[in-house]
Amino acid sequence: MGKKRTYGGIQPGIKWGPFTMRLPGVHVAISWPEAIQGAFLSLATGGALAPLMMQFFEVPFEVAWSILTIQLFWVWSQTVLFGDAYAAGWITPALPLVLVFLGGVSPGSEAVQAMIAITLVVSFLFIFFAITGLGQKFNQLVPGPLKAGIILGAAIAAFMSEINRVQTLPFTLITSWIVVLVLMFSIPFGRLPNTKAKVLMASNAMLVGFIVAGIVGTFAGELTFSIEWGFFIPQFGELLATVSPWGVGMPSWSLILSAIPISLMIYVLVFGDLLVADSLLKEASKSRQDEKVDVNHTRTHWALAIRNVGQMFTGGVLIPLHGPMWTGIQVFIMERYKSGRKALDSIYSGTISWYLLALPLGFLMPIIGIIVPLLPVALSLTLLLTGFACAYVAMSMVNDNISRGYALAIGMITAFVSPAWGIGAGIVLYLLLIGKNGGAIEGTASKEDKQVS
To answer: Could you list the residue ranges that cross the membrane (predicted)?
Structure first.
């Protein structure tokens, strides 16, 4: 059982500096539906990065999986140690940009140093905005329609990423999409009587989609499983020697300077994640007056810097970097959270429980044997929910036809060209189409943003 909070108050925890530590079972109640689903989906989605690290860093699967086990600790630390309400994850939209950058250098130690350079520059940006406090102010200065365009760009990019994947696993992926969307968002399904079966499926929507995908994929011949028994032995020595600064050294200044443009783009994407996170929390707070969620972007910036630097020195560099939120899972937890205290007593019950079992189960060979064939399904479901959430959040932020058209244009530029072009074109078009004063709609958006901040 977690500690009780006063009605409308913040969930108790242990304050240390700007952070708050909340331990599962001590400060927050454990939610087993989240813990069980989170274990499999965190391992499966995290494992999807293993082939990329094997390709670019030229390391065996054992080293790549060892990186991912340490990654799980640093992801979990966002909520447990640092006190953020977000279901932490990677900077997923940055993945295509990072792969392009790494493709410009030789695989192996040179690619590792390139990733170290990106990690250093991005972490410096997090620290700079944390010290100056400009991260939170920057959020308030960006016009509402431009925010909508950035978020819509993330939605378009997420859906675009699934075009090639669905062609390789059509029956598996489309079936899992339908199952998860119906269980989470279907209006007719929501109107059905709340039987035990319905409640059980709705509260485990991601896991149900995962199981159905495994069954359909097996019968369709799209998935095959190979189960081995035993325990996975992490290769920490080889890991530190091949994918960390301890082994390959620090990058040259020229490589660090070359990483600045992509790092600025990555920060823009992190900023977009924070916009989506705030919008989701603000929407959920309307249904949950019993809890005040502590949102602090300065604290989040410090946590992101610590997580990325900590990952680099203890578990090697990570493609595509630690980010503030796993959007698809945040959407899932928010939907559960909005249904009341019986489902989730606190937002932290969901975000902390999600990663609770992932780390210990990641060392069991039978689990790895089940997870590996389902890696594309987990990544696909995550991106699907990310796109779905970004789309409805972006559409809710604009109220007139000009702003809607503007947001779509900026979203398309961001997704098809680059985040940098999206921001640049967004500022120019905002001044030309809406004006620097922004009118009534911009005033409304600014007021809402201040309430979030």
So the answer is: 87-105, 111-134, 146-163, 169-187, 199-220, 253-276, 346-368, 374-394, 406-433
